[in-house]
Model the fold of this input.
Amino acid sequence: MQSGKIKEIWKLLDSVPDPEIPVISVVELGVVRNISFTNNAYQILITPTYSGCPAVKTFIDDIKSCLKTNKIFNFDIKIIYAPAWTTDWMSVETKEKLRKYGISPPSNKVVCPQCNSSNTVLVSEFGATACKSFHKCSECLEPFEHFKCI
Ligand SMILES: [Zn+2]
Done:
């Protein structure tokens, strides 16, 4: 019975968008690590992306309000830092969504999301947020953000 509910919670959280990149959910981002049921409450384990990323508080609030809207009140959200979040937790599909959204997905090689050229220049270590760097493509001249690889 609980396992059905746990599946439902995974589905609900998969509808909570990342506050910075609305095309991907907090589940796709890989920050929701585990959901279990103990002590009469759903235990939701969250691993923040970049330490000190201001988005963490936002997505925890978003998760809380999503669950409450769906009449789930008996839950605890715990933040765990080990193992540390890594961009490897993003699936290939998620990285493709990022690219379509115009953000160069995490990878060792920065590739322009518009024309796929790797002929790019780093403009700034920090984009709109600390998790991203800002680049410009030397082929199509489009500026773009790159999700940093960690
Ligand atoms: Zn380009």
